[in-house]
Predict the structure.
Amino acid sequence: MNGFMLLTITTTHQPATDLGFLLHKHPDRLQSFPLSFGQAHVFYPSADEDSCTAALLLDIDAVGLVRTGRGQEAVTDQYVNDRPYTVSSFMSVALAQVFGTALAGRCTARPELALMPIALQATLAVLPCDGGASLIRRLFQPLGYTMSIEGTLLDDHFPEWGNSPYYTVTLTATLPLHQLLSHLYVLLPVLDNEKHYYIGEDEIAKLLRHGAGWLHAHPDRDLITWRYLKRSRPLAEAAMARLVLEGEDDVPDSPDSKTQAHPARTDSLSTERLNRVVEEFRNYGAKRVLDLGCGEGRLLQLLVQDSTFHEIVGLDVSPAALKRAEKRLHLDRLPSSHAGRLRLLHGSLTYRDRRLQGYDAAAIVEVLEHLDRSRLASFERVVFEFTRPPLVIVTTPNVEYNPRFVGLADGQLRNPDHRFEWTRNEFSAWAHDVSLSFGYQVRIEGVGPTDPLVGSPTQMGVFMRNVS
Ligand code: SAH
C-alpha cells in the first residue's frame, strides 16, 4: 500500500521563474530523489515569467518500509499514517533533503532573493491532520497566512460518516521562501499527531533551528513543541525552556546554574547593550537615528522615551518581528507628541535602500551574526557606503566568552540562527578593514562583565565617519 503527498509552491514574483534558482531545481526538468522511505519527484506544472509553480510529490513505499524493517507496526496495517513514520514527517524529511539549501535561506544565483519577501502560495494535497481544520488555521494564521482549507468526506456516498482526517490546504503570504519552508518543516508533523514516531535529542535542535525567529513568538508555541516532539515530556520541556529564552535574549539558560561564576541569564546583558547604544547616540548628539535589524523594537522603545531623538526609524527583514515591534511600541496609540517621530520599515540590510539615507547614526545590534558570510560584503556596502551615517554602532557576540555561559555545549553558538560568532581578533580585524575601506575610524569595547581571559560577552564597534 503506497501513500502520497503533494506540495506545490507558486510565486508571482517577477520573473517568476526565479523560483527555479531559489529551489535549486531547473524548471525544465523532472528530477527524482530516492529517499529511505520512497521517492521524491520535483517538477514544474507551469513556469513562465508571471507565474511559476514547483511541485514536490512524495511517493511513499510503505511496503518497502515494512520490508526493510523501518515499519514497526504489523504488516497488515493498511494505512501509511498508522505506521511509525507518518506522511507528514516524511514531507519534512523530503523538504530538508530535496530543498535543503532553500530551507537554509541560501541561494548562490540570487542570494538577495533568498531573504526577500515574495508572493508565495503553497498547496498541500492529502495533508493528514487529526485536529481538524481549526488546528490548521490555529497554527498557520498567526504566521500571517491567508488560507483555504478543504476537507474530504470519508465516503462521498455516505456524508453522514463525516470527514476524513485529510485536507487540501492552500496557504498564501508574502515572505521569504525559506520562512515558508521552515513553517512547513515544523508544522506538518505537528498537524499529524502520530504518537509512534521515534524521536531523539537531535529533534530539539531541528525544531529550534527551523523555528528560529518565529516559534518563540507563536501563540501556540507550547502546543507545537509538545506535538512536534511527539509528547515526550522531557524533550518538550527542554525545548520550551530554550524557546522562552529565545524570546528574551540570545543565550540559552539552565535552571541549575548556581555554581557558575557568571549568570547565564542575559536580560541584563541585553539591557546594558541597548543602554550603551543610547548613550553613544546621545554623546554624539545624534537626533535622527536608525535601528537596523530592530527585531521586536526594544531599542526603539528606549529611543522613543528620550526626547533628544527627533526621528527614529526601525528596519527589519522579518515582518513577524515588525508586527511584534508595532505591538510593543503601541504604534496605533502613541501620544501625538510621539507619533510621527517613529517609523518601522520592512527591508533587508543586504539591499541598498534610499529610505535610510540622511540619518545621523545607525545601530546594528546583534544582527551581523544572522547574515550569511557570503552576504557580509553587501551588508558592508549598504551600511558604510550607501547609508553612510556619521556614526555606526555594531554589536555582536564574542565567541570566546561562550564557555562562561551555562547551558551552551562546547562549540555551540548562542542561537540556532547565528551563522557565525567571532573571536575578539576576528571582529577587530573585520571592523578595521571596514573602517579603512569606507573611511571610518573605529573604537572597540566590551559590553557586560569582563573576564580576564576571554573578555566580555558582547563586543561593540563604534564607527565614526572621517570628515571629508
Ligand atoms: N537588534 C535587535 C534584534 C536582534 S535579532 C535586538 O538587539 O534585540 C536579529 C534581527 O536581525 C532579527 O530581527 C532579524 O530579523 C534581523 N535580520 C536578519 N537579517 C537581516 C537583514 N538582512 N536585514 C535586516 N534585518 C535582518
Summary: Confidence is low (pLDDT under 50) at residues 66-85, 247-265. Residues 2-198 form a domain with the c-terminal autoproteolytic domain of nucleoporin nup98 fold (CATH 3.30.1610.20). DSSP finds 15 helices and 14 strands in the chain.
